[in-house]
Amino acid sequence: MEENQNPEVQPEEPVESQPVIENDPTPVESALPPRPETPPDADAMGLAAVPEAMDEILPETEQKKEPTKFQLFVRKALIWLGVAAVFFLAGFVTFYFTLYRSKADTLDQTQAQLTQAESDIQELEGQLADANTQVDALTTADNQRALLSVMVDIYAARLALVQEDTVSAKAALSDTADTLGEISDVIAGFDTGLANALPNRLNLIITNIDRDPETAIADCDQMLKDLSQAETALFH
Question: How high is the pLDDT of residue 187?
Answer without folding.
Answer: 93
